[in-house]
Amino acid sequence: MAPNPLKPLIKGMFVMLAVAAVVLFAYHARLALIAEQERIAESQKRAKELNEGFRRKAVAEATAAKLRREQEAARAKETAERRAKEDASFAAAEAKKRPVDVGVAFGKARRNAEAGDADAQNLLGVIYHKGMDAVIHLNPDTHGMQISPHVLSALTGEDLSGRAIPSIRFVSIPVIPANPQEAVRWLERAALQGHREAQATLASLLFYDLRDQVAAYEWSLIADVEPADPTVGKLTGHSPASRKLLRERVLQKLTPDQKADGEKKAQAFVPKKEKP
């Protein structure tokens, strides 16, 4: 059989096809590599831009925060300087006023109360009922003052009318928290001596604070033996109408037996002065 003259040609074609396939593969591989490199470069570019954006934002925020701190520090300094001037001005004005020692006045009132002075006992009862802060309160931030003028006047002996207050400064104010039990102790001592205001205040305190309705009713009856007594509301503001309202509220809480018992004790009450 004679050799095929086309065989070398066919073989050459296959070789060329193989070479072309290799070249084509290499070409596509090169294109893929270039595309990947471009993708990586683009990704790196975006990451760099993003990081730069974050950096700029962080710098802007840090700058703004620094500016706020500087502004706050400036305002704080300005406020402190203004407050220092106000305090200095207030201190200078206060130094010109006559000092009234509240602590000394309270000590004197307590000694008088312990010695049997019914007015002093009533005063202590009123103070302990609400606490000294309700009698006089000084606000160090605003230099403001809130007082209960009648109680503070009774305690210090000062005329606390509108004209007198600007010339007085109160010092050594004792810290006395509200103490209903201590208030009852002093009010009861004054009430037993026949002190009308102490009796009315005691009735109110027993009912509203200590929930002793029977004793409250008894003392409300005793306090109203002379309902028009002008001293009854001198420190506490009790009026005939408020005492009547209290008695009506107390009666709503009492049984007939409790009511009768309270009235019996009130009728039998005889004031007795303490011996000095």
Folded structure, characterized:
It is a single chain. The chain has about 280 residues and is mostly helical. The chain has three domains: about 45 residues; about 70 residues, no CATH class; about 90 residues, no CATH class. Helices cover about 70% and strands about 5% of the residues. The chain has ten helices and four strands. The strands form two sheets. A two-stranded parallel ribbon has the order 1-4. A two-stranded antiparallel ribbon has the order 2-3. Strand 2 and strand 3 form a beta hairpin. Helix 2 packs across helix 3, helix 6 runs antiparallel to helix 7 and helix 7 packs antiparallel against helix 8. The chain is elongated.
List the helices and strands and how they pair.
Layout (H helix, E strand, L loop, with lengths): L6 H89 L2 E4 H13 L3 H13 L1 H4 E4 L4 E4 L1 H8 L11 E4 L8 H13 L3 H13 L4 H11 L16 H12 L4 H13 L8
